[in-house]
Amino acid sequence: MTAPLLQVDDLVVSYNGFRAIDGMSLALDAGEIRVLIGPNGAGKSTICDAIIGRAPVTSGRIMFKGEDITRLSEHAIVGRGVCRKFQAPGILPTLTVAENLAIAARRDRRWWRNLRLAVPPGEAERVDAMLERIGLADRRDVVAGELAHGEKQWLEIGMVVCTDAELLLLDEPTAGMGPAETARTADLVRSLAGRHTVMVIDHDMAFVEQLAARVTVMHQGKLLKDGSVAEIRADAEVAAVYLGRTKHDAAA
Length: 252
Ligand SMILES: Nc1ncnc2c1ncn2[C@@H]1O[C@H](COP(=O)(O)OP(=O)(O)OP(=O)(O)O)[C@@H](O)[C@H]1O
Ligand SMILES: [Mg+2]
Description:
Blueprint: E1 6-15, E2 18-28, E3 33-37, H1 44-52, E4 57-64, E5 67-68, H2 74-79, E6 82-85, H3 97-105, H4 123-133, H5 149-162, E7 167-171, H6 179-190, E8 197-201, H7 205-211, E9 214-219, E10 222-227, H8 229-233, H9 236-242, H10 247-251
Parallel strand pairs: 3-8, 3-9, 6-7, 7-8
Antiparallel strand pairs: 1-2, 1-4, 4-5, 9-10
This protein binds adenosine-5'-triphosphate and magnesium ion.
Magnesium ion (MG) binds next to α1.
């Protein structure tokens, strides 16, 4: 048995005494796609914040590739191969689609300051391949700010993938999408399995079903359930928290 790529042990994150994460544990194997669901305020985005080094961890531990990253800076964590897509789009709206991908593909972040630095070998091919993969090849020279909502989300997923990080954290990639766009996003995320390990947060059960991945359910900063989509769908406790009832009610 190999060690998990990511292991979160008994994590606690407090904001002014409020435990946004209250003893959460989670482990992801290399190459797997994991879906994280839970009602609003369950702590899903905060877990991503903690993994990427942006949340005040009170206790517990986050291990990535066998090393403790709990108290490293965001910069150091990104450098080790973790990349996160936020709930709000993080594209550069005045640059073209292709330029956004090219920036994400560059390890040398000086490019952010000087767009004329030499283009690294292989970059154009990488950008072209990614444009195909996210379905935006015919939009490559469009200024990103002018893309439709779904296209912006795909561009941002493409940017995250272009960083070549091993662990990708995608926070609500289908927010605001219709069924056809959601299905396309599921195909895109599924295509990442193997080469990348992906934790994807989403509320849309249709999307979760299309991903056919293991599901982890959070509630009030803790693990509530873990299982297949079918198991989670059939779970009375999970149904109860989504209806705003307490665990006690569910057991009654
Ligand atoms: N920076 C912060 N300061 C204070 N409280 C915070 C902060 N970030 C998150 N919280 C609180 O922690 C709890 C968990 O928030 P979080 O954003 O992780 O939930 P979520 O599961 O991502 O919810 P949603 O589905 O609405 O995105 C909430 O009660 C939220 O108000
Ligand atoms: Mg959130």
